[in-house]
Amino acid sequence: MQEAITxxxxxxxxxxxxxxxxAYKAADLASKLTQVGxxxxxxxxxxxxxxxxxxxxxxxxxxxxxxxxxxxxxxGGLPTHIAHVGLGEGADLLVIAPATANTxxxxxxxxxxxxxxxxxxxxxxxxxxxxxxxxxxxxxxxxQANLDVLRARGVVxxxxxxxxxxxxLVGKGRLPETQALLGQIRRVLGREGSLASCRVVVTAGGTxxxxxxxxxxxxxxxxxxxxxLAQAALDAGAxxxxxxxxxxxxxxxxxxxIPVTTAEEMQHAVLAHVERAxxxxxxxxxxxxxxxxxxxxxIKKSGDNEAGLTIALERTPDILEAVKVARADHGxxxxxxxFAAESRDLLENAQAKLARKGxxxxxxxxxxxxxxxxxxxxxRIVLLDADGGVTELGLTSKAAVGEAVVRxxxxxxxxxxx
Length: 418
What we know:
By secondary structure, the protein is an alpha/beta fold. Helix content is 33%, strand content 23%.
């Protein structure tokens, strides 16, 4: 069972499905939205029903599917011919995916000749369209002009992917995959959140320091907690920069990714992006030491190291200390949150780090636990603030931890403004 997404949970979403072969992806989108807690009402055009049946959507949403203004409700219509007004006005979001060139033209010119186009006119919620069409239809000047009109009205346009079409042609016009669509929906639903108009920088992953061309000093951090924090900040409406030493994780839709490898690279990236940032969340597991020298060639077994190999280590840059100095100079970032991964004396060590680094909040976690922290999807943390407050979060998902930390960040910002 997929975990509920707070920004989506209990929101009423109208999903408009139009006549494209990509309609099968809309069924997956409807399913995923339902799984994460949304109430999804599907409206299908006549052409959409040529590609996929209403029953498919009813099966994954557990709700009626609307196909006509004129048929009785049991036949896929509405109770009355004016019920579309309530359907549109009561929604939190209208998403049309896939949106054909014909549908985009209708929306741009205010046509209202079927249930979906009439509902779009009646809706007072944000509107998102995800164009999908074959050949050169998307890049045609008429389609682009219609999209310009819609954007000018505040409609959010999800850019299609490039690839091979059902016709065999290759170009731009493929409907993005479900996770990309879901990420865009999250951004729209969260844009009036507690961190709207704020800039947030998040670090993630374990840095890696080279020994030779094939070996590195690193740690067990997967970066999952940092990515969950970035997603939570996006859900709260923030502009997010994600500075990551992790690899292989899907980047949250809307985040600006700055890939790094070493502690020194991460420090340069952090200092370059925290100026005028509202919040810095240092979730990365930064290596404290690195080899004093890096071998130019692979270190091989030989008579010289038969008894073993000694590698001299030196300290890496202290990123939070550098941020503390920069913050004293120009006041940015306004809120700094750190993480403390400890194997003993959790609260004492975290409290000392909180004071030493001049942090507003620190999230402490016990790395000796096997069910939380490194390399798993769950975490168990204690939040300590600069005023002496202590909040324990029991074992929960890293997504929930991310939301809790972001809520505290927003609260700290509000307190500064007040």
